[in-house]
UniProtKB/TrEMBL annotation:
Native source organism of the sequence: Thermotalea metallivorans
Record bears the keyword Cell membrane: no
The UniProt record lists the keyword DNA-binding: yes
Main location: cytoplasm
Lineage summary: Bacteria, Bacillati, Bacillota, Clostridia, Peptostreptococcales
Function: Site-specific tyrosine recombinase, which acts by catalyzing the cutting and rejoining of the recombining DNA molecules. The XerC-XerD complex is essential to convert dimers of the bacterial chromosome into monomers to permit their segregation at cell division. It also contributes to the segregational stability of plasmids.
Active site: R156, H252, R255, H278, Y287 (o-(3'-phospho-dna)-tyrosine intermediate)
GO cellular component: cytoplasm
InterPro entries (alphabetical): CB, DNA_brk_join_enz, Integrase-like_cat_sf, Integrase_catalytic, Integrase_recombinase_N, Integrase_SAM-like_N, Recomb_XerD, Tyrosine_recombinase_XerC/XerD
Localization, UniProt: Cytoplasm
SUPFAM superfamilies per UniProt: DNA breaking-rejoining enzymes
Keywords noted in UniProt: Cell cycle, Cell division, Chromosome partition, Cytoplasm, DNA integration, DNA recombination, DNA-binding
This protein's name: Tyrosine recombinase XerD
GO molecular function per UniProt: DNA binding; tyrosine-based site-specific recombinase activity
Amino acid sequence: MDIGNEGDKFMNILLDAFIDYLANVKELSQNTLDSYKRDISQYIAFLAEKKVDDIKHTNKTTIITYLLYLQKRGRATSTISRNLASIRSFYQFLLNEKYIDRDPTINLESPKSEKKLPSVLSLKEVELLLAQPDDSSEKGIRDKAMLELLYATGIRVSELVALNYCDLNLEMGYIQCKGNNSSKERIIPIGSMAKKAIERFIKECRVNLVRDNAEQALFVNYHGTRLTRQGFWKIIKMYTQKAKINKKITPHTLRHSFATHLLQNGADLRSVQEMLGHSDISTTQIYTQITKNKIKEIYNKTHPRA
């Protein structure tokens, strides 16, 4: 019998039990589950390389060695912090299940990283990007509706593609959106421009794209099935190049721009936090720094004694 292989198999059984717990008890979204599974799978692979065939044989030094290993491989500080958070949750699960009698992650601190301000678009750049889809084609009408909705609501791309037709209330002008934790739902107004774009998409395009009447997805591809995050990434990349905007634009850029523009125009932080679905207001506060920087820039450009 290959003891090493048996150990690997058992650790993967523990991982499956952990993911099952996160899915059925914590009710986390599929994207979050995939992230946990990827992080812990990589940790287990590292332990196998080090000939550690039982999680009980790991300790604080093991975990620190793994974090240093990630650092040497050029992983970003944010990625290392996320890995540690996943590993910590895994050990806490094992402790609660009484498979281990101590948690080696206690008092282990995440690596400190400077918070980089997210890249945001100016209002003119947003308008330029939103003007790119060809509204004489079904694809352009669909893409216009998606871009308008992203900027109008600040939802994540994963939330955009997860939207169902029934999550939309055009009469009242809002969407129901489930965040990373699928049990937490928020109501977000969509605004007149997004509403108009979505109405046109539904009337002129969706009815032609959807082949199965049982399809619940709001936004679908040419196969009539739910659009993927990867599919949307290709779409926004194409329009960025078409708009010739000299900034790195990701699907998250419109979310950052949504929050920043709201705060610049007087929205209160708590309301923006609620619309973004942040559990911690400190996450939302990063956008106030962008706003302060913008005010300082305007002051330096316009005040005669600046």
